[in-house]
Write a structure and sequence with these properties.
The complex is a heterotetramer, with 2 copies of chain A (336 residues) and 2 copies of chain B (323 residues). With 336 residues, chain A is of the alpha/beta class. Chain A is 36% helix and 19% strand. Chain A has a 7-stranded mixed sheet, with helices on both faces. Chain A has a 5-stranded mixed sheet with strand order 9-11-10-13-14, sandwiched between helices. Chain A is globular and about 65 Å long. With 323 residues, chain B is an alpha/beta fold. The radius of gyration of chain B is 19 Å and the shape is globular. The chains are: A alpha/beta (336), B alpha/beta (323). The complex binds thiamine diphosphate (2 copies) and magnesium ion (2 copies).
């Protein structure tokens, strides 16, 4: 076991997988940093420091710094994957799916099906998502609901350094296309990371807290907030299951349904806006599949149906907070 | 024109297969039996074949919505393609893709594509893979005079130049994107190659109705790219014999335009004329091939018509490898 | 009242609004058709015949045929709108939001908010959506859930020629950005269209059938299927409210909730895949806001979580059908 | 250089306002008081001002993530901008946009933009609006040497050429996109203008650290575009004094590079030198402006710091006009 930051877990996993499998290729903007400058390559290593040292070790054909051309980045990953490589492309911000969506949604996510199951497209698209830095409406979004809605791509959302390693290793080895979403506000988070090689299978949620009274389903940065709320409520004798989904597509439906069968009460905590969201997806799942168990209306704690505002006061109000989560849990418990 | 007899026969045969595949589809589609949107490649045969005759299965191509010709030229199974267009479970994509989504990675055919311009970045990726392998292989992306206006195409060209990817941007200028003329939609007027040149690539041009022009041009382009000089672009002037899609009344054509191109810009006629002129082959050999090809297409249609249909359960398979 | 086709209602509305307001400008690929050809302009008038004759009447500065550059089309609409015009851009297929999403999602949909409410962006983006033509995975999608998830844009889904006129007129006059989705399989549908000028406000659903037993919520092409099922069941004495949402953003939540309060049973019929869908959105809404009324788990009739297949047998199986809708209604009724 | 005394003073003042606005932000950001990502325009003042001094409020500009200079030059309220960056409810966007999203449609400033390359198509739309109005107005889109690789930028150029939109594609080549050099990321090496030329536009080039070079070049470009010749492109060679964003350690810079550009490529120093050389103004006049501007910036910061903060309820407003 080593203590390391979330961002270090990303870097070390990329490093390990590139060493293990020479088909692994990484590409993205400034992932080398310093190309074409007096300072020279590796002056940076990615703006999130998740690719430092890869270029020096693996060279320019496997660590490809690209122009600002996200469609071409994702498209190149698609072509590399079809040609038998294992590309890991980086979108600096998840918001840039806007300029590259076709290649994710209509290309990478559809090849296998359109081509009759006769090909694989093992591309990984990493992207930094989420709010918390007052980066405003175009650099703070949590786009996982949009991507989860799209058949053919798997969507992975690690919340801890240990999960980063296990899930990213799985993503790179997985034969299907994977979106790997790293929360910007977690990059500096420390955690224990098991030594050696391991993978975490997709579609297996993690039970972070166990309790009998309410099921809290969440993911990414929100996990920590929910754990804190669960701990606070536990002191009062209120028991919460806190489920970290880890992957939203595939999603561990059984873990959610099993828990709700016991608790009868559901709260979903989701950093995205509410419409056609993961929160409503899970509410829909539970209502259709565990209706008889449900004792109260689900509490959905989401961002509002607005773009993400800039000012500190506004952004913090925009985001789910421990206070709102706690209120939702209490409201669910108080029902009837 | 240093082609062997066998090579000449093969090239003609490939062009003829494309031609008859399409002429037959044109007829079959009118009966309503074939579903979906079909874009016929007829008229452009010299391009697909003049390019692909230089390639082996480790060279990769990326195609367009008008992909039948590229697929056949690159070696996709003709009967499997016909079955696919018929929507059979035995189609090359099990009936899931249809005309716009034919692919066969094993022969280096990385997919037709319904999204105009989407293929170019994919080609760059394939080329980067080839570069990494270091065996002198290339990727060729086919684009039309319409597709060359899509942002992805431009991004791909710059990315290929920057990364020195062995990628060939091949523009088939058939002068139309759907119902719009290239003189309107490409700001540099009919000239796509000059724009590619603006991205810092060496460019070539050729006559896309003349197999020999395409073949000879491509030899140069491929020598250049295989030698590691990075990407290149090539534009072929060619013709589309049918409408944009089947059913298009083509009111945008000039009077006599279609008759003229059928008469003077027919890749098969031109091939025959040039072969006869240079006495490269006895022309009856080509007649024999014609007969063979017609039989092949007849058989392909018969088999496609009789082939098993997909079942409801097939809808749910092939999304992922591991679920 | 005139009888006309859905596509004619689009064309006549564009014509009328262009005559009424000289700020209205239309743009898109082949919307004139024949530009730069021997046949000359207006050889076509849009592949859906929804712009025939506009060029001749309003000229090239107001009827702008464009190259195949969807980002630039939507972006140009954004710029026209910011500059005070009323652009109506056409995406030939809704699937092409893939190559233009940024301009819809991060630009048009966010200007007003990001700029502190000090500007408007009255752009309309029309797009043809939906399956039924065996056009396969990249030309058949129903992207309304993705767009509904995005704050800042309104999403409109007419199901009849009369609604086309009222809703498109409203869309063009609305000061907010609007996505106007026309179902390909409805273009040929005939219907009565009231004469004269009228608008249908957004967020007001239409009750197509009234009944006491089950609430069916649907939209677009699915409306006709649901009406047929309701009529069939009515003959058996089963009464269905059939609610045509008309707009998904804003959505008429009250119409849904009011109906479910009476029926206690909900079926949602949605042409898109199931995850983070409009179906789950509505299930979530009803479960959180009308929990006490709900007598049975909602029935969600959606496409499966797969791309859209090509072959006739596959596509028809992929789509919701009267049989599946009827089964869902019966299952909901049979519960407990 | 046929500028009046007033025009010269105005130009210098505008550049100085931009400079001091940014120098001050650079300091204030280090205290942690200002939230978000801030990209400073310092070093490029001559471009924004040399361009905007030709424009009135009916001419429109579209800006980038590095937009403060464009905003100030186009006439946005400086105090409102400072308040915005501070996140105040009295900011020019009520605290909702921040540094990357400043806009003021009333002065023809159609928005800074956090998405690299997104502005170009928007500029084409604004230009099409101007064309429809027929009053000789133009739209100018500012892009960097990085943004010129985004597909949207290319699409916009072609679209403008095809539609003859009075749009000016203005490239500020400060040689860096984030931490990458233009020599790497633009396939045509340092030359963006030649690529724009490849799209069929007339292009100009100028020195983006010299107000007079920019101003004179832009007179020609604007005359050309206002006359109805369609779009044009212009590239200015310029310098970025600070890091890509605040906090950037700039390890990619060469030794002495920053000192050198501060010494020899400073738009304000160059302006002073040229004005002095040509005896256009008494240099003490400029010193007076410096004092004034510093006072303005001090006041702007004081006011921003004291200005009311937005409240929770503000999150939910301004999404739509009609709900
Ligand atoms: C992104 C996108 N935009 C528009 C279309 C619709 N469309 C299909 S083919 C086509 C014309 C393409 O013209 P060109 O590239 O010249 O190819 P050609 O049809 O001549 O082979 C258009 C506009 C599409 N499929 N994808
Ligand atoms: C679509 C998109 N890709 C990447 C980024 C991240 N990013 C912000 S600024 C920038 C560099 C832009 O370089 P350039 O256009 O030269 O402008 P400069 O920063 O030099 O003013 C990058 C990569 C972004 N904001 N948007
Ligand atoms: Mg063409
Ligand atoms: Mg730059």
């Amino acid at each position: 076991m080593a203590q390391m930051m979330y961002r270090e877990a990303v870097l070390q996993t990329l490093f390990a997988e590139m060493e293990r499998d020479e088909r692994v290729v990484v590409l993205g903007e400034d992932i080398v940093g310093g190309m074409g400058t007096a300072g020279g390559p590796e002056a940076i290593g990615g703006i999130w420091s998740t690719s430092v040292g890869l270029f020096g070790k693996f060279g320019k054909d496997r660590v490809i710094d690209t122009p600002i051309s996200e469609s071409a980045i994702v498209g190149a990953a698609a072509g590399l994957a079809l040609a038998g490589k294992r590309p890991v492309a980086e979108l600096m911000f998840a918001d840039f799916i806007g300029v590259s969506l076709d290649q994710i949604w209509n290309q990478i996510g559809k090849f296998r099906y359109m081509f009759g199951g006769k090909t694989t497209c093992p591309a990984v698209i990493r992207m930094a998502y989420g709010a918390g830095f007052n980066a405003a409406a175009q650099h703070s979004q949590s786009v996982y609901a949009l991507l989860t809605a799209m058949p053919g791509i798997k969507v992975v959302m690690p919340s801890t350094p240990a999960d980063v390693k296990g899930l990213l290793t799985q993503a790179i080895r997985d034969d299907d296309p994977v979106i790997f979403m790293e929360h910007k506000a977690l990059y500096g988070a420390m955690g224990e990371v098991p030594d050696g090689d391991y993978t975490i299978p997709f579609g297996h949620a993690r039970l972070c807290r166990a309790g009998q009274d309410v099921t809290i389903v969440t993911l990414g940065l929100m996990v920590g907030l929910c754990e804190a709320v669960a701990d606070k409520l536990a002191a009062e004798g209120i028991g919460c299951d806190v489920i970290d989904l880890r992957t939203t597509s595939p999603m561990d439906e059984e873990a959610i349904l099993d828990s709700v069968e016991v608790t009868g009460r559901l709260v979903v905590v989701d950093e995205s806006p509410p419409r056609c969201s993961l929160a409503s997806d899970i509410a829909g799942l539970v209502t259709t599949r565990a209706f008889a168990s449900l004792k109260a209306p689900p509490g959905l704690v989401t961002a509002p149906h607005t773009p993400i505002p800039f000012a500190r006061e506004l952004e913090s109000q925009y985001l789910p907070s421990p206070g709102k989560i706690e209120a939702a849990v209490r409201q669910t418990l108080a029902w009837r | 024109m240093q082609l062997s007899r066998e090579a000449l026969i093969r090239a003609y045969r490939q062009m003829k297969v494309i031609r008859e595949f399409e002429e037959r589809l044109h007829i079959e589609i009118m009966t309503g039996e074939i579903a979906g949107f079909t874009h016929l490649y007829c008229g452009q045969e010299a391009v697909a074949v003049g390019v692909c005759e230089h390639l082996d299965h480790d060279d990769m191509i990326v195609s367009t919505h008008r992909g039948h010709g590229h697929c056949i030229a690159k070696g996709c199974d003709v009967k499997g393609m016909m079955k696919e267009i018929w929507g059979s479970a035995e189609g090359i994509c099990n009936g899931k893709g249809g005309s716009m989504h034919i692919a066969d990675i094993n022969v280096g055919m990385l997919g037709a594509n319904g999204i105009v311009g989407a293929g170019s970045p994919i080609g760059v990726g394939a080329a980067l893979s080839a570069k990494l392998d270091g065996k002198g292989k290339v990727a060729i992306t086919f684009s039309g005079d319409g597709a060359c206006n899509q942002g992805t195409t431009f991004e791909a060209m710059n990315m290929a130049v920057v990364t020195k990817a062995p990628c060939i941007f091949l523009y088939e200028n058939n002068k139309y994107s759907e119902h719009t003329g290239v003189a309107y939609s490409v700001g540099t007027q009919r000239d796509i190659a000059s724009r590619a040149e603006g991205f810092g690539m060496k460019v070539w041009r050729g006559d896309g109705t003349d197999f020999f022009s395409v073949y000879d041009t491509m030899r140069e382009v491929l020598d250049y790219v295989r030698a590691g000089h990075g990407p290149a672009a090539v534009e072929f002037d060619t013709e589309r014999f049918f409408g944009h899609f089947e059913g298009d009344p083509q009111r945008y054509r000039g009077k006599g335009e279609l008759d003229n191109i059928r008469e003077n810009r027919d890749a098969l006629k031109i091939f025959r004329a040039r072969v006869a002129e240079a006495k490269l082959l006895d022309i009856t050999v080509l007649d024999g091939i014609d007969t063979e090809v017609l039989a092949l297409i007849d058989a392909a249609v018969d088999e496609a018509r009789a082939a098993p249909r997909p079942t409801a359960a097939d809808v749910l398979t092939d999304v992922y490898i591991s679920y």
